[in-house]
Amino acid sequence: MTFTLHRGDALSVLSTIANDSVDAVITDPPYNSGGRTSSERTARTARAKYTSGDATHDLANFPGENRDQRSYTRWLTELLTESYRATREGGVALVFTDWRQGPATSDALQMAGWTWHGQMAWIKPASRPRKGGFKQDCEYILWGVKGNLPMRDLYLPGHFIASQPRKNRVHITQKPMEVMQQLVQICRPGGTVLDPFTGSGTTGVAALREGRKFVGIELSDHYAQIAEQRLHRELTQDDFVLAGPEE
């Protein structure tokens, strides 16, 4: 299997990807959560939103976390529209979100042309408690199909239980490898997985391990470098392609 990693803005790079060239879009966009007011959205970093005050790691922030819900819906619709164009008939989109942005994400998915097929829950046992209320220990994965879903001999779970990695964690919102390796199986064997928000590259590593090709896009130079290193370790030098933002 091979991969290509683009460095640059997701929407700009997506416009250069050929029609009908990928089989699945699996992504965790910066979904601008945790801000009830304008000041909360703009004054707090991603690290402040998504890590506890006593966290011992010092992971880098990432951009794109300050949109209000209306602009987020418009922005995500544009991204998923470009992703739809780049996806083959029968291809699938999986988009991570949380309870705040679930309605916006389902709107964007459908406005972009995908036929919405539902959502899966990702339950995180190691999560912060909430005094006086219910623990927020769940995120969601909304999924849709371009056209009709191919009937394959494949049965995937409707929910996932796994905590974020603690050992060798390299990203604030890093997803568990065991979850991502199950999700990428929705892509046909030997097909191509596209992630417009590659982050530290977990989706790409999972795709390669499951026998799929990978196309990633990452805006942050810091995280693109980490993703490059992780993806490269999965392959030999001859298989590696690194694309610049102009591509």
Automatic annotation (TrEMBL):
<dbReference type="InterPro" id="IPR029063">
    <property type="entry name" value="SAM-dependent_MTases_sf"/>
</dbReference>
<dbReference type="GO" id="GO:0032259">
    <property type="term" value="P:methylation"/>
</dbReference>
<protein>
    <recommendedName>
        <fullName>Methyltransferase</fullName>
        <ecNumber>2.1.1.-</ecNumber>
    </recommendedName>
</protein>
<dbReference type="GO" id="GO:0008168">
    <property type="term" value="F:methyltransferase activity"/>
</dbReference>
<feature type="domain" description="DNA methylase N-4/N-6">
    <location>
        <begin position="22"/>
        <end position="228"/>
    </location>
</feature>
<dbReference type="InterPro" id="IPR002052">
    <property type="entry name" value="DNA_methylase_N6_adenine_CS"/>
</dbReference>
<keyword id="KW-0808">Transferase</keyword>
<comment type="similarity">
    <text>Belongs to the N(4)/N(6)-methyltransferase family.</text>
</comment>
<dbReference type="InterPro" id="IPR001091">
    <property type="entry name" value="RM_Methyltransferase"/>
</dbReference>
<feature type="region of interest" description="Disordered">
    <location>
        <begin position="28"/>
        <end position="65"/>
    </location>
</feature>
<dbReference type="InterPro" id="IPR002941">
    <property type="entry name" value="DNA_methylase_N4/N6"/>
</dbReference>
<keyword id="KW-0489">Methyltransferase</keyword>
<dbReference type="Pfam" id="PF01555">
    <property type="entry name" value="N6_N4_Mtase"/>
</dbReference>
